Amino acid sequence: MKHTAALLAFAAAVATASAQNFDPALPQYPRDYVVGKRTSYLMEPPTVLSPMPALSFTWSGDSRTLLYTQVASPIGKRLLDIVSGITPAKPGDFRPEIVIHEVASGRTRRIPLSLDGQVAPDARFVGQTSTVLYTLTRYQSGGFSCESASLLTVDGRTVNLDPTLITGQTEILPSPTLAEIYVVNRVGEANGTTMTVRSVDLNGRVRPVGTITGPSLTPSADGKSLNAVIRTPGSSQVTRRSLDVATGKVTESVTSSADALKDEVGASDKAGPILVMEMVKTVPGGTSTIRLVASDGAEDQESGLLTQSGRERYVAVSPNARFVAYATEGVTLLRALQPIDTALVEQLAERAAQNHAMSDAKQVATAFMMYAGDYNDTLPSNAAGWQDNVNPYLRNREAAGKFVYMFSGGSLSDVKNPSQTILGFIATKTGRAVAYADSSVKWVPNPK
């Protein structure tokens, strides 16, 4: 069966849906599911990558390798003593490092960094490869300068680059041929930006490419040109400028907006249907909630929940939409995303809703019986405020809020047929969980 593991996990989630206390080892619906119109995803339990929070994430284009930066620090009592001021920090206590993690094998390579003063590290993958461009930038009054730049490979090879390649407005573009990167130095703004392009191969050799004007550059699919698209407000046509990476020649053509967007749409589709959505509660003492949302799905406030934290909020979904890495509460985590057909998700979700409704209706019916036992076998009327009478007998008081109470009140001894006398119900999309005066509950599907 397709996606058997995901289906079994969903079945486990449905089986526990009506339990009062969930097993944290099992996926829960809807928290651990990202639901789209065609494809949905089950978020598997997280794996701890590091006991320290990552400061930044980036994925290789083939989704095989995760790159993140962090600051290694003492743990336990020594860290508490340093933070509280009992013990002064020593050189080497806090060590910035780059971590390269291979997802399939679990192998991790750590690259320690030596930083002093106002210096910030930046690391990113080069295209689809497992080669990393790593730079150190020093902040100065009136701007900043690149202290060093290197190409690093997962197998341990390092190539030092000329740091003057990197300026304040530098963009790094991967070549689709994977044999080089393009360093784009920008001067100006918007459509009038002048971009000077140089090529750097994976051995560190630099080659001038040329200069082109436009807002930004995108490599062509065949790797032969870098393209700039200039849009005119209110016009259905756009100007496309192309820089030939072999000759440095710039050509210009006019095309429709729809044609110009084809490459951009195709590129976004390759990134997968998962988007990261961050919601920050602004109320005093509120927490930050990070969820995954399918680009074609509804924004369910309870689905795709990654973390609720007042601190770190770093998230990176792999290009193939099969993994998500994030930092929260002082640790770095990785979760696998298993695709599952949305049609099946909807069927099982409704079954979970049915289980919840039956469980909640049973709780309310039992609470009524307990109330009657304390009040001479009498039930309250269905006037406003009836919930106040049964809430003390409920484990989950939200159940009463879903319950439609229909019984007019009075003595249960006057009820001739309790198993057929309706107390009330809880409705779902496909039916009702109906509670009766003998505390039994039956599922009544909606008429077809």
Please specify the SSE layout and strand pairing:
Elements lengths: L3 H12 L17 E2 L4 E5 L3 E4 L5 E4 L5 E8 L4 H8 L10 E8 L5 E5 L6 E7 L5 E10 L2 E11 L4 E4 L8 E5 L5 E8 L6 E8 L4 E8 L4 E2 L5 E7 L5 E8 L5 E7 H14 L3 E7 L7 E7 L10 E5 L4 E4 L5 E6 L2 E11 H33 L3 E2 L7 H4 L7 H5 L1 E2 L4 E2 L10 E6 L3 E6 L4 E5 L3
Helix pairs in contact: 1-4
User: What structural category arises from helix and sheet content?
Assistant: alpha+beta
Taking pLDDT < 50 over at least 5 consecutive residues as the criterion, the unreliable ranges are: 10-25, 260-272
Helix content: 10-25%
Gross geometry: elongated
pLDDT averaged residue by residue = 77
Q: How much strand?
A: 35-45%
| Count of runs of 4 or more consecutive helical residues | 6
Radius of gyration: 30 Å
Tally the beta strands: 31
Biggest sheet: strands, sense, closure?
Answer: 6 strands, antiparallel
- Rounded to the nearest angstrom, the distance between the terminal CA atoms is 30 Å
Describe the structure.
The strands form eight sheets. Strands 1, 2, 3, 23, 24 and 25 form a six-stranded antiparallel sheet that branches. A four-stranded antiparallel sheet has the order 4-5-6-7, with no helix packed on it. A four-stranded antiparallel sheet has the order 8-9-10-11, with no helix packed on it. It is elongated, with a radius of gyration of 30 Å. The protein contains six helices and 31 strands. The two termini are about 30 Å apart. Helix content is about 15%, strand content about 40%. A hairpin with a 4-residue loop joins strand 30 and strand 31. About 5% of the residues have low confidence. It is an alpha+beta fold and about 450 residues long.
